[in-house]
Amino acid sequence: MRVDARELFRHVSAEKSALYRGIMDAFAAAKRQFRLHLRPDEVFAEAEWTGCLPKIEEVQSALAQLTEWGNLESQPDTARVASLSDFYRARFLYRLSEGGEAVESALSVFVQALKRRAELQTVALEDIASQLQVLRTLAQEPVPDPAKVHEILRDLVRVFEGLADNAQAFMASIGRSIEFQQTDANAIIAYKKRLIDYLDRFIGDLVSRSGSIARHILALDPLIQPLLRQTSQRQARDAAPGEGNEQTDALATAQQAWRERWKGLRGWFVSTGHDPPQGEVLRSKARSAIPHLLGAIAALNERRSGRSDRSADFRTLAVWFADCEDEAQAHRLARAAFALNPARHFLVDADPQELPASTPWGDAPPIRIHPRLREYGEVAPRGPLPRVRDRRGERELLAGQLAEEDREVEEARARMANGEAKRLSDLGRLDPHGFRLFLNLLGETLPAQANPDEAVERQTGDGLLRVRLEPLGADTNAEIVTDTGIFAGRDHVLTVTSTEAT
What we know:
two-stranded antiparallel ribbon, Arc Repressor Mutant, subunit A, 4-stranded antiparallel β-sheet
């Protein structure tokens, strides 16, 4: 009976899929136990049911439905007939159909592929090296044993395919594992240590064994073709007879397959043309996984250090508003929190009106915004471009201000850096430039002082001044008057010398 392949998978997504899968698992287990048939009561007793236990009538109905879909085959059960009424009663034996076996095999492979944990197989590298060594020994014999050569090549290809498949799957899964664990800091830190140790062990083994494997392959290059032909002839003898020349076709197919396998193995460890060997590519990818992981950790730390909770910010802001003494203070807090200060540098009107910054928003005249500004974020003015403004006056004003400020700084430095020892209490009043220079000198000198009673002498960071600071008695006091207040503390003797003058 020819069955539509789509019907064979209907039980997976049907309404009672759990019941159907329990029955099909029971039949798959019976096939592994070499049992040919199952009765409904045996299915009911041996199946592993998920959820509530079904009734025997539900199991019989599900068996009939699976038979209709083509997953099972049924035949009358006459072994338990004890009377004529039992003979006319519908009793069936069920077994997996050919399509049902194919579906179970496909689902089993699918589940295994999902559950497989890809890994970098260092043992496979050792097996490949040992198999190649044995193959070199067989190739040097006058008449190699075809059975041994076939066995070695078959094991070699099986180990190599497992190594290549697992390596490819492992490198593809590293990124997904990092992305899945980025939400948990402890998990990704533990995963980082295990992954780095794992990659370090595999990369070291790959580097140490790739050279010997490549030497074996290069030594086998002039001897491998007769061995591959011998293995292909032994494999082609099992070709089933037919109308055509199956032996010749099977031999050609086998030879082509073995050549491709050897070419793939050779390309993994020996460079071909301008392309590096696949083993080098795998090693570079494995090494690049470590910076990828470190980048994920850095991003995680950045998110943790710069974490922003909008709801918590608003709750804190609400508490601040509740603590305001009057409405004026609340308005100032609102302007600072929501950036409600006027942007007078943003010119959107041809004739902007100069208003003081203290003008309330409600009292200010409206500003007409061009629709293009709302849509595109910019306004292309019509007509000719405006003339270039002459800013020589502004530049001269800025240059004059900078020159005046430099002159005042140099004067303050010349007054202080005269090489004379002065007490801080004798400095008197300092202008803003002199006080700023004084604070810079203290900031560069005091960190080098081991204890408060120790004199310290050092050169400034720019190399222009040499400062000596000698503390006086602990009961002394010095006060320096500035425009912003009085600077007071323990009195010291300050000596500032210009290195240029020296």
